[in-house]
């Protein structure tokens, strides 16, 4: 059992919170409650349009069977009093499977927006191949839909390619992303190339 927990599977973090965690089916089952989810989080009710009220998250991430990784959960934040009329609910589920040198996975996420009828839905697909002990390649695709009622925003689409090389204590990762309609904005396209290094002592 744990008494503190920083990062949830769905929400990035809760400032002031209580968490309980249990080892279940090859993974961790975690429940988090926060009296306030922004700006210090001291009150159960939201105080202004800049804050949200209390929040909770219940998630499981683990490996219930050989080669299989599963993550799923639900979370909710109490709405701010002055700018939304509903709580902000989120759900996420992920399944990945490893066979030999190949791992493939899919993830679905659904989160409400600050309107009475909107939410953001995304589907992610990915696969990696360990070509050698120190070399891996990967490919991914993410499609995000802005599902506010009545809007005509296009889907955001991201295609990602990665190449990773490990030289003992030094790791290098090259990644290329092709982004279409970034943040669901029409014509906001980009190509991003990134080099990242990791040093282990």
What does this structure look like?
- The protein is an all-beta fold and 201 residues long.
- It has a domain at 61-199: Porin.
- Helix content is 0%, strand content 61%.
- The chain has no helices and eleven strands.
- It has strands at residues 16-24, 27-36, 55-65, 68-77, 88-99, 102-112, 119-132, 135-146, 156-167, 170-180, 190-199.
- An eleven-stranded antiparallel beta sheet has the order 1-2-3-4-5-6-7-8-9-10-11, with no helix packed on it.
- It is globular and about 50 Å long.
- The model is unreliable at 1-7 and 39-50 (pLDDT under 50).
Task: Write a brief caption for the model.
The chain is an all-beta fold and 201 residues long.
Radius of gyration: 19 Å
Q: Which structural class do the helices and strands define?
A: mainly beta
Overall pLDDT score: 81
Report the span from N to C terminus: 31 Å
- As for the CATH topology of the domain at 61-199, it is Porin
CATH homologous superfamily annotation of the domain at 61-199: Porin
SSE sequence, one letter per element:
EEEEEEEEEEE
């Amino acid at each position: 059992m744990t008494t503190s927990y920083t990062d949830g599977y769905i929400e990035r973090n809760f400032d002031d919170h209580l968490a309980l965690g249990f080892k279940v089916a090859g993974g961790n089952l975690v429940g988090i409650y926060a009296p306030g989810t922004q700006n210090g989080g001291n009150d159960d009710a939201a105080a202004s349009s800049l804050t949200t009220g209390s929040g909770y998250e219940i998630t499981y991430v683990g490996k219930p069977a050989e080669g299989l990784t599963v993550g799923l959960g639900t979370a909710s934040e109490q709405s701010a009093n002055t700018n939304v009329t509903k709580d902000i609910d989120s759900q996420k589920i992920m399944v990945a499977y490893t066979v030999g040198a190949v791992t493939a996975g899919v993830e679905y996420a659904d989160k409400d927006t600050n309107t009475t009828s909107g939410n953001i839905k995304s589907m992610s697909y990915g696969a990696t191949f360990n070509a050698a002990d120190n070399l891996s390649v990967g490919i991914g695709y993410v499609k995000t839909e802005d599902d506010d009622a009545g809007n005509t925003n296009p889907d955001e689409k991201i295609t990602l390619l990665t190449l990773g090389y490990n030289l003992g204590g030094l790791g290098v990762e090259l990644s290329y992303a092709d982004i279409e309609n970034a943040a669901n904005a029409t014509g906001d396209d980009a190509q991003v190339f990134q080099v990242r290094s990791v040093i282990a002592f």
